[in-house]
Amino acid sequence: MGRRRGIMSEAFKYELAKDLGFYDTVITEGWGGIKTRDAGNMVKRAIQIAEEALAKQQQQ
Asked: In this model, does residue 6 exceed pLDDT 80?
């Protein structure tokens, strides 16, 4: 089985890492250095941003 291509852009992932406070860890240790909880929070935040954008789009 091949590896799935990520849906989030690298720039968006870095922005989320900055917002959630683990950007320095990503820079020094890579994405493998973040905690599972941080990865989960990153996904939750990405979903929240997507839902907000969709709701805003539907209001127009």
From this structure: no
